[in-house]
């Protein structure tokens, strides 16, 4: 069974090809540098960097 492409002329030849195309489309369509009000007017990239920086200061418990 072949699935029609949404962005290009043609069809997907496999599920793996469809997944790659969808992942590529999401990565290029969504602007990860655009600021979002839900993230305190930071971009998703900046929000993630701030989160990792904050988490790096948390103490680690070893049991």
Describe the fold and architecture.
With 63 residues, this protein is mainly alpha-helical. The chain has two helices and two strands; from the N terminus they run ββαα. The chain starts with a strand and ends in a 7-residue tail after the last helix. 0% of the residues are buried.
Main traits of this protein?
63 residues, mainly alpha, two-stranded antiparallel sheet, 44% helix, 6% strand, disordered N terminus
Blueprint (SSEs and pairs):
Layout: E1 3-4, E2 11-12, H1 15-29, H2 44-56
Antiparallel strand pairs: 1-2
- Class by alpha and beta content: mainly alpha
Count the helices. How many?
Answer: 2
Q: How many individual β-strands?
A: 2
Shape verdict:
flat
Order of helices and strands: EEHH
Main sheet characteristics: 2 strands, antiparallel
The helix content is 40-55%
Indicate the proportion of strand residues: 5-15%
Uncertain stretches of 5 or more adjacent residues: 1-5
User: Strands of the largest sheet, in order across it?
Assistant: 1-2
Average pLDDT score: 77
Distance between the termini: 51 Å
């Amino acid at each position: 069974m072949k699935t029609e492409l949404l962005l290009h002329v043609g069809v997907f030849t496999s599920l793996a090809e469809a997944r790659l195309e969808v992942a590529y489309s999401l990565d290029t369509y969504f602007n990860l540098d655009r600021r979002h009000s839900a993230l305190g007017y930071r971009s998703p990239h900046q929000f993630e960097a701030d989160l990792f920086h904050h988490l790096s200061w948390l103490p680690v418990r070893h049991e």
